[in-house]
Each structure stands twice: as C-alpha cells, then as structure tokens.
Amino acid sequence: MALSLALLLFSCKQSEENFRLNESHLNHLYKEVLLPNGKQAAIIHIYSQYPDYSYDIEPKEGFACVDDIARVLVYYSKKGTDFQKITRLTEFILYMQNENGWFNNFVWEEGLSINTDYTTSVATPNWWSWRALWALENALPIIEKHNPELWNRTIYSLERLSLNIKDYLSTLDGKGKKLQGINISSSLPFGSAADQAAILTIGLCLQYERTNDKALVPFIRHLSNGMMKMQLVNSPMGSLFLSWENIWHAWGNSQSYVLLKAGELLGEQSYIEAALVELDSFYPELLKRQSAATYSFEKKEEEILIINSEAFPQIAYGVRPIVFAYLAAFQQTQKEFYRKQAYQWMLWFSGKNIASQPMYNSKTGRCFDGINSKDSVNKNSGAESTIEALLSIQAFNTF
Known about the structure:
The structure is a single chain. By secondary structure, the chain is an alpha+beta fold. The chain folds into 3 domains: 1-24 and 312-399, no CATH class; 35-171, no CATH class; 174-308, no CATH class. The protein has 13 helices and 18 strands. The protein has a 3-stranded antiparallel beta sheet with strand order 5-6-7. Strands 12-13-14 form a 3-stranded antiparallel beta sheet, with no helix packed on it. Strands 1-2 form a two-stranded antiparallel ribbon. The relative contact order is 0.12.
C-alpha cells in the first residue's frame, strides 16, 4: 500500500507541470463590457478558432452565454480572488434574468442585446437557469464581503429563481415510465433529464447550506430520488446513471458527484452508496475502453443490452464531471482508489487518451475542443473546453 501510494505521488509529481493552472487563454476569452443597463460587466467569448485562436460566433445564438460565463464564475469563486472578475461576471448573469424569473442564455455582440427567441436561449427551466443558480450561489459569499449592493441584487435574483424552481418541480410527477424495457424517471426536468437535474440539485444544495431553509430539502430529495431511478444496474459496462431516457452520455453527467454531495448534506447513505457503485464499476470500465462518449441501452427479459455506442467526440466536459465525482468520493471515504482514479482520468488532458494527444497545454492555458477520432483532434479552444479543463485542474490540485 505504501509503495503504491509512493508511486502515485511520484506520478503526480511527474505530471505536475501538465496539471498547472494557466489562465492566459481564459484571459484571452474574457472581455469587460458596458451593459445597456449601465452596469460594468464581463463576457467570455464562446469560440476560439485554431490556428490564431481568433473569436467566432454562432450566427443563430450569439457571441457569449450564461452557460459558459456561469462556469467561469464558479471557477473564480472557488479561487476566491479576482474580485473584479467575480463582480463583472455576476453582473452579466443578473442582466440575463428575464422578467419571468428564468434566464435567457445568449447575447448578440451588437448592442449586447439579449437573444430571447432561439431555442438555446429562451428563458425557460433549462440548463442556463440551473447554471445561473449554481454560479450565483458560489459567488455570493465573496460578493457579500465586498459589495453589499450587488449582494442584495443577487439575493433578489436568487429568490425569484427559487420560487420558479419550486413551482416547476411541483408540477413534475413521480410515476415514471418504461422505455425499451428500462424503467426511467418522469420527475426530473424534461421528464428524465438526470444530467440537468444534477446541476440544479448542486445549486439547491449550495442554497440550503447558505440559508438553512428546510423548505428546500423536499426539492433536493425529489431530484435526488429521480436521479436514483435513472441508475441502470448490471449493464455490460457495470452500474451507471443514465443521462436522459435510455441514453448515457459523458458530457455533463454529474449525477455521482451530486448524489455524493446531497447524500452527505442530508445524511442519506443510499445516495452515497449508489454513487460509489458507479465509480467502482462503470467508470473504470469506461477508462479501460477509452470510449467516453455515448451509450444507449435496452432491456430484454432480464438482460441489459448496449444497442448503440459512440466513442466520439471526447471532450473536457465529459472528463470534468468524472474527476469531480472521484475527488468527492475520496474526500468522503479517504480511500486511495478514488484519488488514483481521479488521477487516471486527469491524464486524459496530458495525452493518455485514445488519440495519444495532449489536450491541455499548461504553457498556453488552452484546452483543445475535443477528440474526433483516433487520428483527429479538434484544435479549436473555446470557452467550454477551457473552463472545464481549468475546473478539473483546480479541483485536482486541492488534493
């Protein structure tokens, strides 16, 4: 055991340079702006194109979005410094809250007008509203110390959002349904979107820790129990949490991490045990196959079958949730297995992946946008890849 730990520590030291935080590219994507409401804010450019890493936009969406800016705000909040950036990014997220209490996602570059019409930007109960909750709850303790006026506005924003969330969750039934022989939840966003539920749940957990509002507990349990119903046991890959319907996908699949956190917060051991089963069986198998992308399943009689699998693209957003889950498991159990597994997944960034290509460059701070095949890497470096890599490294380096 001692030798094994020594080898792990030696390997970690060897990879220390690969896992060094470098914010240079994040700074390249960051831009301070004056909003139409007169507030000083900041955006993160969504796309950065190889070879010169110039900016680009999605013509139907815009040039900056809550989805990315929220994750950057989480990063800076966990870092605890760069207060101006925390303030500016918070101002942008507050600006994006619609009159209905939900959040729009995208802004246009010209005039920083809000895209209120396109499907990935409409103010509805969706990813960008959950991420806004997660980010603002992370930022609040720092804002409270430095800017009472901004803190008050952020609290008001969160109160509006929380009322919406409680009303929305109250409309979701818990009956469940069966799809291709598999029992799935109907009590989550979009019925069975466990990936979305995970982000929403971690935001509610942070809010509960801050407020001690017991009224939040039933909603955290509602979502956690719904995610538990999405656990597929005894598949050919081990036990795993489906992302949506009968599909598992790597990106944003944070259920294990969130159930560990919710289980610890609520003293619910069943959540923790279910998460550990996935970390003990499914992710090691996934790592061995180097196939982290998408699987679809069906159940015939008592046998679970893989009916479709895709190995690509493999992206940082698929690796980070796994790293977070293993680190949370190590923190709770102190079992070295979980820290070792987190390290093995971190090696994806330094070149231990199916393409044998380093994905993160500690000298530039860039993380490539993905692996498209064994022989092809997407060398663009947009906001999502950059921040997911930095969040992974930030978390890993705390252990």
